[in-house]
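Course assignment 3, question 2. Fill in each field.
Student: A.L.
Task: Predict the tertiary structure for the chain below.
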Amino acid sequence: MGFFDSLFGGGRRGATGALAEFYDTPTRDEAWLAVDVETTGLDPNNARLLSIGWVPVDGDEIILGGAGHVIVRGEAGEGSVGESATLHGLTDDEVAKGVEPREAVEMVLHALKGRKLLAHFAKLETGFLDKACRRHFGAGLKVDVADTMQREYMKYIAADREPRRDDLRLWTCRERYGLPPYKAHHALTDALAGAELWLAQDAARLPR
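Answer field:
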């Protein structure tokens, strides 16, 4: 897949539990898991993971029955969600009712088994999931990645045009393909939106 293949993290050495199971499962062709995370910031080194949404994609079919969403409870010593709540709508009270971080990441890893990770600006998803895997499962997350934002960016470059920042936002990209608007910044909705954009890009024959 050229540019869209990305290996992230430190590999399988020392991996335990759900991460070890993920590494022991061969990746299937044309099997994807569209993933989105909501966080308190963009840098996994100083921001918290608040929720994760995912939707499987098999070939040209979105598997809604395999979709999932989880709110991630904060760990000891982590502060308030702060002003980020104005984006994702997750309050401290809601996050406090979420599941333990290890369990949340375990759910995602089970869904990801045998699949490649698909996201819009995938660096965010891989960064936070890699950090969580190192903390809870003994190793980093090394996974094949496809990025719908990068795919869209390369379309502009091939046409000898430099996109503006807004041109590459998920919802702007969807508009160009005639996809319906959804409410932004809910992890499951954004994962589904990314999956639909991926298939629209395929239909438009964008290179992978």
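Instructor remarks: The beta strands are 31-39, 49-58, 61-62, 68-71, 116-119, 145-147. The mean pLDDT is 91.
Grade: pending
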